[in-house]
Amino acid sequence: MARSRRVLASPARTLGITTELDPRCNLDTRKAWLWVFSIQVVYGLRIHEVFAIQNLDEPFTTKDKVIIPALNDASNNQNLVVIGEKSKIGTKTKTSYRIARPLIPNKYPELIERLEIKKPLLPNNKPLSTESKAIINFHGKIARTYLLKWDSPFTQTHALRHLANLNGMQAGISLEVRAQSLGHSPTMNDTTYKKRQHTKTTIDILLDSNKQAIDFTSGLLEAKQIIKKYPNSSVAVVELISKIYQKSEYEIEELLN
């Protein structure tokens, strides 16, 4: 990130943070918190859950021996994150353990790259108080402080969680999958969260509905037809299907054979 007061990083622009940098600001701290806000946009995580991600820079093995690759693994095209039961400062996460998927809107398919999600950078702020309430609210209060300081158009990071849900709707991700990824019930998603859906968003969803990817089974059938017609295209087709449906190339190859 440049030290000029006039230059803003791409994540800052994407998040609508437009204030100029003070020459005395700590750029590492700023970049770390921008990454926190960015990953909330992509996954819809609660602020404390960002600090409970288990596979930022190393793989995570589940109880039933499934390996979830590290988020910063360049070959990991599924980009799943594992939320643990506790954050880095020991606070319990609201829904305990779960796996979350990215919620990428059709209009911004490059959002993970644009926000540098695969370059994890957690802030190292630690609470000074030992009071339980102060510790529980620690990350939320600091986040709000920075959002106000940076002249952000929003001051509560929970707005990013709602935005991620709307992004998932625009991407055609089902209610059940969005709810499971966000860590709440489908009823909660379809009532409380839907209240955040403005008219423009509703129109975008309706107009984009015929542009969304076909279901996975139909996609595989189409892929088989293409490979049958163009045998030399199999590698490219497998990679494309893998990226569209966020499944491993190995799994796609097995299903196509």
Descriptive tags:
single chain, 257 residues, mainly alpha, hpI Integrase, Chain A, two-stranded antiparallel ribbon, globular
Structure, explained:
This protein has 257 residues and is mostly helical. It folds into 2 domains: 10-208, hpI Integrase, Chain A (Orthogonal Bundle); 216-256, no CATH class. The protein has 13 helices and 4 strands. The strands form 2 sheets. Strands 1-2 form a two-stranded antiparallel sheet. Strands 3-4 form a two-stranded antiparallel sheet. The longest helix has 17 residues, at 27-43. The chain starts with 9 loop residues before the first helix and ends with a helix. Residues 1-8 have low confidence and may be disordered.
Short characterization:
The chain has 257 residues and is mainly α. The protein has 13 helices and 4 strands. Helix content is 46%, strand content 4%.
Task: Give the number of domains.
Answer: 2
Q: Percent of residues in beta strands?
A: under 5%
Class per helix and strand makeup: mainly alpha
Per CATH, the architecture of the largest domain is: Orthogonal Bundle
Which value, in Å, is the CA radius of gyration? 20 Å
Instruction: Provide the succession of SSEs.
Output: HHHEEEEHHHHHHHHHH
Largest sheet: 2 strands, antiparallel
First and last CA, distance: 46 Å
Helix content: 40-55%
How many individual helices? Answer: 13
Helix-strand layout with pairing:
Blueprint: H1 10-14, H2 27-43, H3 47-50, E1 60-61, E2 67-68, E3 81-83, E4 98-100, H4 111-114, H5 132-136, H6 138-149, H7 158-170, H8 175-182, H9 186-190, H10 199-208, H11 216-229, H12 234-245, H13 249-256
Antiparallel strand pairs: 1-2, 3-4
Helix pairs in contact: 2-7, 11-12, 12-13
